[in-house]
Amino acid sequence: MELKIENIGMIKEANIKFDGLTVIAGENDTGKSTVGKALYLYLNSEDKSYPLLLESLFKNKLNTFLDGNIKKNMLQVSNISIEKIDTKVYRSVFIESPLVWNFSDFFRDIAQIESQMRIELDYPYLMKDLNFKLHIKSSSKGLDIKEKIISLMGGEFKKDEMGRYYFDKKAQRIELVNTATGIKYFGIFQVLSQNNYLNKDIVLVLDEPEVHLHPKWQLELAKIIVNLVENGVKILVNSHSPYMIQALIKYARDENITDMSNFYLAKKEGEFSIFENVNEDLNKIFSLLAEPMNEVFEL
């Protein structure tokens, strides 16, 4: 599967392959998240039979996702398309932040208001969609990594009689507002697993997962990612962490999935960003990400 993007946000053009594990490395504000959001919206769009133009409803949703970064005076036509290697119909799960747990009550109230008043409110759509998947089981059969995650966290995410999640640590109830953000992040994987959303029909988008994780846990997450890819889940990781990227490279080699792994470097050229496949020269990623530390050493 190959995602082709033209004139979305700061991305002039990008061709990104999804054979299993796809990693986009780069500094902030280079369009990494835009690729993930465009992929998510395309895969979850009901109508994929025609080019998706700026004037369409699709454009309005995408512009909301990108915080208004589609500028009419800069772009005339936007296009997102996918060339399929197989005929499978994929859907996408987008994990942007573990803070989704903090908004569960809010999203429940929003859903009630929308249902009762038959209206659609403006809300952080990606987070609401993830919240739905954390509370409603899929009918598909998913990969079971629950016990692995519970062992890593030293506890388990559970629901009480009211349907509210909490963190159970050695029979002690810890409210999620008081739970470490790193544990919240792994808790997403635990619950997605038990709700059957980690399966071969899913493209999982992880947007800068390292933000809330200690380097040690970044390595643990990299192991989980590679294990999911081995079992048929397609995963996109947007990252600017050398720990995360190096771990993904190592574990992909250890598990012999390099033939289904693609690494890209996102970098600015003038006002726009370009995406370069660096499979043959991964040092380009680390040369860029090492620049800040080199500057410190030179001071």
Helix share bin: 25-40%
Q: What's the number of structural domains?
A: 2
| Backbone shape | globular
Q: CATH topology of the largest domain, what is it called?
A: Rossmann fold
Salient structural properties:
6-stranded mixed sheet, 299 residues, Rossmann fold, 23% strand, alpha/beta, 3-stranded antiparallel sheet, single chain
Structure commentary:
- Helix 5 (146-153) packs antiparallel against helix 6 (181-194) and helix 7 (215-230) runs parallel beside helix 8 (242-254).
- This protein is 37% helix and 23% strand.
- It contains ten helices and twelve strands.
- The longest helix is centred in the last third of the chain and has 16 residues, at 215-230.
- It has a six-stranded mixed sheet with strand order 5-9-10-3-11-12, with helices on both faces. A three-stranded antiparallel sheet has the order 2-1-4, covered by helices on one side.
- It folds into two domains: 1-90 and 201-299, Rossmann fold (3-Layer(aba) Sandwich), CATH 3.40.50; 98-198, no CATH class.
- Residues 49-57 and 69-77 have low confidence and may be disordered.
- Strand 11 (261-269) and strand 12 form a beta hairpin.
- It is α/β, with parallel strands linked by helices.
Short description:
With 299 residues, the chain is an alpha/beta fold.
Topology:
Elements: E1 2-8, E2 11-17, E3 21-26, H1 32-43, H2 57-65, E4 79-83, E5 91-95, H3 104-117, H4 125-135, H5 146-153, E6 156-159, E7 165-169, E8 172-174, H6 181-194, E9 202-207, H7 215-230, E10 234-239, H8 242-254, E11 261-269, E12 272-277, H9 283-289, H10 291-298
Parallel strand pairs: 3-10, 3-11, 5-9, 9-10
Antiparallel strand pairs: 1-2, 1-4, 6-7, 7-8, 11-12
